[in-house]
Design a protein that fits this description.
Blueprint (H helix, E strand, L loop, with lengths): L24 E5 L4 H12 L3 E6 L2 H9 L7 E4 L5 H11 L4 E4 L14 H29 L2 E6 L12 H21 L4 E8 L5 H14 L3 H9 L11 H11 L11 E4 L7
Helix pairs in contact: 1-8, 3-4, 4-5, 6-7
Length: 271
Amino acid sequence: MTEQLTPGPGPAGPHSVALDLTGRTALVTGAASGIGRACALRLAAAGAKVRAADRDAEGLRALQDAESGGGAQPYPLDLTDPDGLDAAEEAAAGADILVNGAGAQLVRPIEEFPPADFRRLLTLMLEAPFRLVRGALPHMYEQGWGRIVNISSVHGLRASPYKSAYVSAKHGLEGLSKVTALEGAEHGVTSNCVSPAYVRTPLVERQIADQAAAHGISADRVVSEILLAHSALKRLLEPEEVAESVAYLCTPEASFITGASLPLDGAWTAH
């Protein structure tokens, strides 16, 4: 007689992944637009209480009023300002989920890149995530559970010319995420990066204009010849697609995914 093995718990079992985050509190930065807004809406739809941080107070009010926004609590903060960084670290206290989504871009050759802008972008996309993680970890450690998702970029894995500050910040964010994963593992805290290619956001729209000026070509040529040149999938990614990956990484079923970088890049990094 052939012995029949009973399936154990895990991916092969009968349970589906339920994106139910009821009872969890999530802090999302960059929540007024683009990827951050999509993440805030998705986590709220999954039942989380959302703290939404951004310097765009009007955008936060629109998010709060959105039917699917779940009454997100607005935190109008400037993450490039010392007082804003202090307030962000305080806001992260008590959060079960942290999504570092705030970002900005400036496209210039290195020799023309203003040092003040280089410093500002690194503050926003590297120092601010550090401060937020620092504020969130004590509560996560105390309860033995936490989820940190850093919105990195394909430029956290690959470099492009004219983006010295952005590429430096995202490479640093990937490293910070891995260190957080190593330190948080014994406390039930996971830390991962989601690393998308070009997403249909206001940030990318501004970047298209900057690239057109830098290269002296039309906006259409920037999209086809530069933005999508390395992608096997010839389209922009939608913010909601990124948010779905973020939400999955916040579930109990994703507890063994940590220290990872999830490329949403249309096979860009497959080259």
